[in-house]
Amino acid sequence: MEQYARFKEQHPDAILLFRMGDFYETFYDDAVVASQLLGLTLTSRNNGRADRIPLAGVPHHALDTYLARLIRAGKKVAICEQMEPPQKGKKVVRREVVQVVSPGTVMSDDLLDQKRNNYLVGIFVSGDQLGMATADLSTGMFRASERAADDLWEILERVAPAEVLAPKAWVNDNEAEFAARMPGALLTHIEDWHFGQHYAYDALREHFKVASLKGFGCDDLTVGICAAGGVLCYLRENQKGAVSHITRLAREHTESMMELDLVTQRNLELVTTIQEGRREGTLFGVLDQTCTPQGARTLRTWLSQPLVDVGRIDARLDAVQEFVESAAHRDEAREALRHIGDMERLMSRICCNRANPRELVALQRSLEAVVPLRETLREFRADLLVRARDQGMPDLTELIDLIAHTLEDDPPAQISDGGYIRTGYHKELDELREIASGGRDWVANLQAEEREKTGIASLKVGYNKAFGYYIEVTKANQDKVPAYFVRKQTLVNAERYITPELKDWEAKILGADERARDLERDLFAALREEVAGWVEPVQRTALSVATVDVLSTLAEVAFSNDYVRPQVDNSVRIDVKDGRHPAVEQLLPGGQFVPNDLTIDGEKDQILLITGPNMSGKSTILRQTGLIALLAQVGSFVPAREARIGVVDRIFTRVGASDNLARGESTFLVEMNEAANILNNATPKSLVLLDEIGRGTSTFDGLSIAWAMTEYLHNAEQIQPRTLFATHYHELTELEDLLPRVVNYSVAVREAGDTIAFLHKLVPGGCDHSYGIEVARLAGMPAEMIARAKEILNRLEQNDLSVGSKPQPDRVKENGQMALFAPVAEVKVEREDHPMLSELRDLDIARLTPVEALVKLDAWKRALEE
Ligand SMILES: Nc1ncnc2c1ncn2[C@@H]1O[C@H](COP(=O)(O)OP(=O)(O)O)[C@@H](O)[C@H]1O
Ligand SMILES: [Mg+2]
Hints:
By secondary structure, the chain is α/β, with parallel strands linked by helices.
């Protein structure tokens, strides 16, 4: 137990699984927790002293299953193995913690989703700067970046890491907020000095064996290096140094990507739907026809990081176009891709010394499948594809041969089973195997021989663990047993014997067997290490395979769903002919989706106000416009007949009254927070999609805010983003006359008597009627209720409650600056006719002395009090 205590001290925050024979045992508090989480019986063990220790164990062969359950429960687990077979006489077996597993450092397929990365994020905050490093141990990905500290939560929520690593001090201050904002993620702290800049820099240099980080473009990072150093230390510690597959540190250039905040990603339903968090009905669901796991992960990444550089976008589009145009070669390439496994994760397991024989053969097969893919790529001219072939798919015949010559074609998964090293690979192994199997043949023959010699027809040769090989004779035949049989064991109906000769052979067989297994294990370890040395070209190949997979997938989707190549440029125009929503069109029966034209242009038609009743298709048009722009910048064809996209630097989407109850903020406050974020961060290159903003509060409040926001987006220089504003406040249509770059649109409905039909067609001009009652009727409300609602509506409409007078946007310019939400539209109030107000209006402040002003004020106040 002293040994146990020592390991536990080294890993206080982990559940320690302590190997004892065929079990992994847990003790003390760990045992209590483990027994609860795993449904084990909690027993106790007398430690030779008076106190009893709580204890719970799992059988060693079921480790993976139990491990998965602990990790899913958000625990960290340290695995302590026996490093030598228990020997008689020697009391304490040498043990070592061979691996620490945490949610951010899992490697096993049971715990990983093939189609998404498993991120460990390290953060280091200094002043207003945030250093961030993102790693995926299962693929070898490692990136660093520097951001504004204010964006920390936003970024974390977007990346959705399995585990976040931070200095102790930060953890102490932020633990509670972390738990509230990032449920399901583990927060781990390590000592602050791991994040020290010099320490971190040296650790990185040493790991990558480079003189400086210039080659990675990371030499000028400061807090980014601190974060990366922290992550590297943690991974090395957890994996006991076996992280050779982390071969480079990439610099993440956030400015070269379209920004998509979390709310926007959700609202556009990129990877999960808003309603049920499903994958069907999302953009990823429509696009994911990838053939390989690394392709699926890359597609996901591309979707969350669209490009902003026209040249890079066009390079992708060129490749997609070539795949679209040559169906035969596309099919050929995709057929080859289907035979390629998860090379990235296989290689990572190999480098972490976790791969078994079957996984090495899987890598070999994948590498073999790259050969025909490379051949097919010869047919292509697009730059990205040429580069993928010439630079990204090096000749790995030597590696393929190495594995193929060493391992059997269809080896067992367990290393301990033996029988995976190919015959002919190693002379001594072959000899040992021959002795062992020759021995087994000899034993088999022995039975026949002895039967003949003794005349006992039922004599059997058998084997068990306790006694080894034996000869069994039934009680009935005891009189025929020869003298040289030595009795070993008595059973109910039989006696078991051995002979000296039998024991000689036994020693030979078992000795050879054991030595063969040891030798196989050593040979395999050596092979795995040698294969690990190929990490760089294999990772490069995996990356190219992923790229080719995604590009061909985008082409496949474009081809089967009739997408068109968008024209992408640096204008501030978006011009879409017959655009469709990629996911909604698939949910509707063929041909039922109504395509729409839409033009928006920062210089002329900057803000499109889209009115229309509920269910007419407003939100769909907003989303489809966002998705078309996003797809174009990902380098994909788009669901339209024609599309021209001026590059968007950032898409903002806000949906009125979206729920965020989980965080306990009122929906309206959330809505306003989000709106303020747009007003503060939008640029003329942004695309703003406002869906029913202002819905979360009373009508007048909401209307005023919506009105003022429109004015602000229209007038504030530096901002003026392209904006689509869907609203049921038909009062806002008046803005078209007041603001030159606001244009009214509506989604057409056809009135037929008392009811309406949705045409889903976007047409110029506002809609002056909300059709709420008609929609209620469609929803099946009782007829009397509908009639009563009409009556109330008529009465309300007779009192003029609408916004009347003109707002004065020009005032913004006069004041030189503009406050948020100001100036609001002047809402017609009765008090406007009050004599005091006209007096105030006529007052010339410039000619007033302070005393005169005070006197006036005093007079008014008294008049009011009367
Ligand atoms: N262009 C379209 N063609 C066919 N059906 C559509 C179209 N746009 C929307 N719909 C259908 O109408 C429903 C409501 O659309 P939505 O955009 O949510 O309306 P709104 O935001 O105006 O309330 C969608 O679920 C979809 O089934
Ligand atoms: Mg809507």
